[in-house]
## 1
Amino acid sequence: MDSEYDLIVVGAGPTGMTSAMFAGRSNLKTLLIERMVPGGQIATTSTVENYPGFTDGIEGPDLSEAMLEHAKKWGAVTTFNEVTGIRVEGDYRVVETPDGDLRAKALIITSGADHRRLGVPGEMEFMGKGVSNCAVCDGAFFADSPVAVIGGGDGAIDEGLYLTRYASKVTVVHRRNELRASKILAERALANPVMDFAWNSVVQSINGDKVVESVTLKDTASGAISELPVEGVFIYVGLVPNTDYLKGMVDLDSGGHILVNPRMETKISGVFAAGDIRQKAARQLVSAAGDGATAAVSVRNYIKALAG
Amino acid sequence: MAKPVEVTEQSFDQAVLQSQEPVLVDFWAPWCAPCRHLAPIVEELAGEYDGKVTFTKLNVDEASSIAAKYGIMSIPTVMVFKGGQAVKQIVGLRPKRDFQGALNEVLS
């Protein structure tokens, strides 16, 4: 693998894959670097119903594989490594990894966001023993068993509905008394006979011996404690942007999202940020991909200006 | 690049437990689309550890008794066996570095 590129894209989710595809089509020598596996959030999403053109929906993993192929078709090179920092060296924008530095004329930061943890006893101990962040990976292990889904947003409800294919009962545990999910999903959930709701409830602990046997819930209104017997716990309580490695290099908002201008450029020239990692009003797949295209076009113009 | 060998309930004992060198087993299922996303990483690892570690994959639907024996409740799960014993277990889609760390420990 070379160590010098026109563009390095950090993170192979939908934004990064779109950036890499656009950059490749502009004949920019592009490296797409991924810490985990390609696809980002859609790698573990069941059905995407709101990506334009897919009237009947498309499976998240299928779409992410297609996006990666699309980026590779136009010349983007992919590698699996962790980015531990970035720095500026004259005209170079440098990406630091445990295996050494990689240099480029421009960077696009698309490292997205990870699932927020509940931070309760049992959560980490039972990861893979009943606790999961991936309904499409693990749902089939809970055939005819009761499970809990924690959260009330689109992610929780979408994956909760997926789990109703397998589980005997899906209890949505939500800290408020109404769902935050979009109306279409909320209505579908409320009408589903397999779904149940623990409103105004927060998880205090996840319990079991070798595997999950129950969750302890606290009613936020009355303070009452109750025990819900479940074998699976699927946690979808929001996302945390992956900006730790950028430590002080770029401006962040109070939620840790990167601030960029309309060209997706951070306060460092030649360093762009796009997708769920940046401060924005809508966090949807189509807007993530759109961000990726905008950033790639900006990089093309930036590199053209560098060349004079 | 080396491709992981599919093991079955019939071949597991010989291919994994009786193996002279450490064996990595990638537990997967056809319905687990995210499991496919681990494949490029496992294939890269198979190239890097060629001659030191045997790379295999196991379909948890077809070899359900083995999946049950090792308490697999989440896939992808990667286990490393040495001398017939399960010595490492990595659950979920994880960074490549985590797999390299586990393999390096097993080899040291």
Note: Residues 88 and 102 of chain B are 7 Å apart (CA to CA).
## 2
Amino acid sequence: MGLVDKGRLPAPLTKLFNMSRSYSLWVYQWGLACCAIEMGAAFGSPRYDVMRLGVIPLPASPRQADFVCVSGTVTDKMAPAVKRLWEQMPEPKYAISMGSCANCGGPYWDSYSVTKGVDQIIPIDVYVPGCPPRPEALLEGIVLLQQRIKNEDMAAKWRGDEFTTLQRTRAMEAGEVDRDGELINEPTDPTPEMAQAADSVQPEPIVVGGGPIE
Amino acid sequence: MTLTDRQQLSYIASQAADARLNVELETEGMTLNIGPQHPATHGTLRIICRLDGEQVVWAEPVAGYMHRGYEKLTEVRTFPQVTTLVNRIDWLGSFANEVPFILAAEKLMEIEAPPRAQVIRTILFELSRIANVSLFLGDLGVQMGAITPVFLAFRDREYILNLIEGATGGRFHPNFDRIGGLKDDLPKGWIEETRGAVKKLEQFCDTIDDLLFGNEIFQSRMRGIGIIPADIAKDYGLSGANARASGIDWDLRRDQDIPLSYDLADWKVWTHPDGDSWARCWIRLQETRESCKIVTQLLDQIPAGPVMTKVPRIIKVPEGEAWVSTENPLGEMGYYVVSKGGLGPFRVKIRSASFNNISIVPWALKGVYVPDVITILASLYFILGDIDR
Amino acid sequence: MAPLSDDTTTQDAPGADAPAALPGDGLREGIIDNLRSHIGDAIVDTKITPNDDLWIRVSTEAWLSTGQALKDAGFTYFCFLSGLDWMPSPYGTSEEDPDDEPKEPDTEIVQGYTGGETRFQVFARLTDLNRHVGVTIKADVPDDRLVMESWSHLFAGANWHERECHEMYGIGFDNHPDLRNMYLPGDFEGYPLRKDFPLLARMVKPWPGIVDVEPMPAEDEAEAPVDEKGDES
């Protein structure tokens, strides 16, 4: 998309793209343990139907997925597989960590073989706490993710700038960007640290039941 | 059954024919890796198959992708904390995991729960069996390629989960059993709700019977496949419906004397002489129907009284060792509890049913075709938390 | 409850075709006698809880022949096989309040039912499906050479159980076809179920101990919290 690479995207176009992106998510279910059953209930049962949100559950492969829902305990033996799955997904991709085992190790916080939280391996956008979280809680997490996607600035994301409103607000408060999101002091040559920082721009994660929502 | 003999003979003949063809074509062996993330395995089980054409020459399940270290964790927790943790071993039939552990602790303390608690425990145990096996019946379709039954299973399972949530507060992982009884009494109106829900589950069993078990494709994919003779089953320690499908008439609910109220109801144990995948699945269907009958009968016989005996608030279980095993939805699950008089156990050995059930996979998968690998695994029915603990 | 008879009565094990009868002590005593006729005085100790359960401890050398004798006597169902580490954990059981002064750790190795002389023991359980009776067999693992004979040629299911026992305790099994890790990744160091294997998360952040009543936020200055510390008796 040449427009996006070169400059900024017109706002109505961004809004249209974001809306259509958020309402047509394809979710890869990485169901590992008990939370996988609640995820299955959320995705497969007619009561907590997730398809009414526009989210379709079964992609044929991770390369066709928009976001991954990691549900269940991640063990140290399984961790490389999770990393490889994440790397296979094309951008833009998001991750939801469902259940307390995936959030922080959960009831197995002191075990010798459990990875204490999947955010040690992949960056997470939404945390859904619970053991297991009710299917409605997972749906709430998906709705919050959809809200975040609707407020994204796609061009900035692809350039590596701050792209969520929260990040832009904070950068404005720090005096780095002006109202339009332009950098105040254009650097002549981007230093390696700045390039690295741009690469690793991470949005603030959302926690269902608390945390920032933009 | 002559049908099985004939099918067996034709299967062997086709295998021999293929072997001849492979030799003529000089095909090389290929290693096929199923899992650890695969929609057909109930979790993160990895099976490495070495193939010769379409046949499996050697198969090996690699477990451990869900190993959470239960036996070490129980050593640093108190008895109520272990009850919470132990719910999550067999995560579909979760109340059923707590019961043998609590019974072992009660055996060490030499107390028994009051009759009302025993009957309610039995009812919740059977409800968790129905919840567990109804999802199995739905997943059976998915593993053949038929997606509809799993939606029906999730829908009808919701009735049972509502009941368990109404009584205990948790859809699964109820954490409701306590040493000496139960945490709370049943809420008002629960018994009537349960009667209605159990009727709906009986309709679900009839639907699955028509939809799946009467289906010609299902039958030809399951009959005569994965035959496990009775003495091999005993050697490996197969239990539950897997053993009863091979003709072993053994059910821990009937054959041992533990304080659960199975003798108050009139029910039967189903066995099947064949020992193939079809028999294992069919026995589970019949057992679900039987569980519905047990629950309906027990609901009329809940005695009045307390649900908890007098136990101290901070429980220290006296020194000793105890072994209790029960007929869980997956098979025989038992706990060997070693206590040294403290607040928590000294060592707990968790004997989980699926560990033994899956140890037979290398033997059972020799010489089968690749599509049959999935159906044999489906019929053996395991849950990863149960294998890996 | 029938009293535990300490001499062999004529009431021997009932016939294998009477599954409806509740097993009495004569049944379990008969099992011990039958085993004694096969392996003699390799039976070190026994314990019967009447009408309930049976434990037998045999000597290390007779581990395999015990299994064979019991299998021939009708115990054809293999339940499980695992290990026991009787050393008390040097890190405590996290029932103590970490603010207390640390007590002297208890280092005395006390074995459970049917005793023992070593730190490690292996134990297995077999069931007779016709007579509906089970037996737990224990054996000491010699401290200087942690190796036992393998049951995997006797009971095929013992293969996986011995692999798990090996990776968790470090007990080797002779004649086992394929002794490698069952659950843990290949590069895992240490034997987790040994008592001296620490759980690092608890080292870093100890559990606050047993607290009986959490004080309400407004009340902490007014009322001292009621703490019940789990003392080891």
Note: The first helix of chain C runs from residue 25 to 39.
## 3
Amino acid sequence: MDALSAPLRILVNGEPQDVAAANLAEALAALDYADAVVATALNGAFVPKRKRAETPLSEGDRIEIVAPRQGG
Amino acid sequence: MSPLTFYGRSFASRLLLGTSQYPSPAILSEAVRASGAEIVTVSLRREGARVREGQDFWRLIRDLGGAVLPNTAGCHSAKEAVTTAQMAREIFDTPWIKLEVIGEADTLQPDVFGLVEAARILTNEGFEVFPYTTEDLVVAERLLEAGCKVLMPWGAPIGSGQGLNNPFGLRAMRAHFPDVPLVVDAGIGLPSHACAAMELGYDAILLNTAVAKAGDPVGMARAFARGIEAGREAFLSQPMPPRDMAAPSTPVLGKAQLV
């Protein structure tokens, strides 16, 4: 079966989502983040932007997508 | 006066200002400008795909044009803090990180063990670490051994506005590390607190709530800038030693005999 046609159930910022994506870069595009300034982590580990396309996703993965915010 | 230097970068202002809790983005911008701060602290938080709060905020910060010091606020373990720092370095394009590893929820005091561990990892990865720590001298030594070239002891618990809870400890730290840039970070409520820390010889002050939660944040930002400048100049001017008993300031000699 084509990986892209079989959505994965993953956790995106703590919310369960079904995403048709084989890797992290595809997931960001599918989730509408493609043009946003964000950083990512997969299962608690940082994934640099340049590595997103070569970072495969699996069922149940936890993705964190963060952006600049107010801070002290 | 000699400039403030962190990791080879020099700054005229000795106030580092947080960007959180202001009544509006416009007031945040105006307060930063009024404060004269050249370094602002920021954080990373989850970004929604539709409501992209972070993108607008980042534009506002870039427009201010100063240096950005990202924090690891809210992290309770070295691992979490390290991952947050790695994400911050990519987004903000800076090796600087204000390292917070929180150990206790009520006081928000640092977990100094996790702090040293994270500082060591991050320094090895090329980060320039600004550790939020206590005034404990032994922890400070460990942080320096881990590669930190700045130390940021708390004045009081974050957001408490209590001022300098342990002036003795802060004075001892200054005396113990005469050549390390020291920043009082957290707990400052009034310009007089910031001024007192500067009079002790601290190099800079990092604060947020005291400005953001003032009735007039812009006015308070200006007041802090002046308090910090006054304290710095007082320190450089070598304050007189205090004494227990009175000493007349007007000459005794030459006073007319009127009785």
Note: Chain B is about 40% helix and 15% strand.
